[in-house]
Amino acid sequence: MEWISSLQKAITYMEEHLLEKINYEDVAKHVHISSYEFHRAFSFLTGITANAYIRNRRLSLAGSEIVDTDIRITDIALKYGYDTPESFTKAFTRFHGISPSTAREGNAKLVLFNPLVLKITVDGGKTMEYKIVQAESKKFIALVRSFKTEIINNEANHDVADFWAECNAKQMLSPICWMLNKDYQGKGYARVLMNEMLDRSRKLGFKEVTFTTKPEVMSIGYGLYKRMGFEEMNCTDGVASMRMTL
């Protein structure tokens, strides 16, 4: 209940300060929640980020003013936080599907984005059969890149998709695919493939390579990693975390 109450206070704060220069960090500070936790909780419960909520509410209200008043579009753009008519037109068109000038001509269908109201719905209470199956140990190799938390649920952001496209375009996945190919296993290709992956990582600007392995299961590979200069950061429950600074 406390979280729901805090998030509703956050929504009220956003509604009362839509015409001011605010973002999710300002809202989080107002309700005394860390910006990281607020961002995750708000996105999880509402399906959009707080910044996207603020933007959508502004554009929805701007659309109403364009249709219902004679205020200049430039003044409306400034009122709702856009520094130039061009940036406002771009955002308005992306949200409503038509330009501000077209909306003013009349008979246009605009998108209405109403204020959020959080409600608690109790569901469940039904029995469900399940079975726990212990799976065999698996080996995972990953290409890692950090992203800002505020891109979560932001439909306009394509950073993660662009990263995958970059991986495919630069064939960054090829060494990993070769390492998992049984035709190459046990034939001395591991060091060559690892070196190729490290070289590509350096060229792409990665600062370090990290992964996990099970020394008892992958004893030969574990020994190779150590000889190649990988540092064992820790080992918990038989799983060793390996790292190499590039």
Structure description:
- The chain is 48% helix and 8% strand.
- It has 246 residues and is mainly α.
- Strand 2 and strand 3 form a beta hairpin.
- The chain folds into two domains: 2-104, Arc Repressor Mutant, subunit A (Orthogonal Bundle), CATH 1.10.10; 149-245, 3-Layer(aba) Sandwich (Aminopeptidase).
- Helix 4 (50-68) crosses helix 6.
- The chain has eleven helices and three strands.
- The chain has a three-stranded antiparallel beta sheet, covered by helices on one side.
Topology:
Blueprint: H1 2-16, H2 24-30, H3 35-46, H4 50-68, H5 73-79, H6 85-96, H7 100-104, H8 159-169, H9 174-180, H10 190-203, E1 208-213, H11 219-227, E2 231-236, E3 239-245
Antiparallel strand pairs: 1-3, 2-3
Helix pairs in contact: 4-6, 9-10
Contiguous helical run count:
11
Low-pLDDT stretches are none
Helical percent range?
40-55%
Mean pLDDT comes to: 82
- Quaternary assembly: single chain
Query: Termini, distance in Å?
Result: 47 Å
Kindly estimate the percentage of residues that lie in beta strands according to DSSP: 5-15%
CATH superfamily of the largest domain: Homeodomain-like
Helix and strand run: HHHHHHHHHHEHEE
Shape descriptor: elongated
Taking the sheet with the most strands, its summary is: 3 strands, antiparallel
Compute the gyration radius: what is it?
26 Å
CATH topology of the largest domain: Arc Repressor Mutant, subunit A
Domain tally: 2
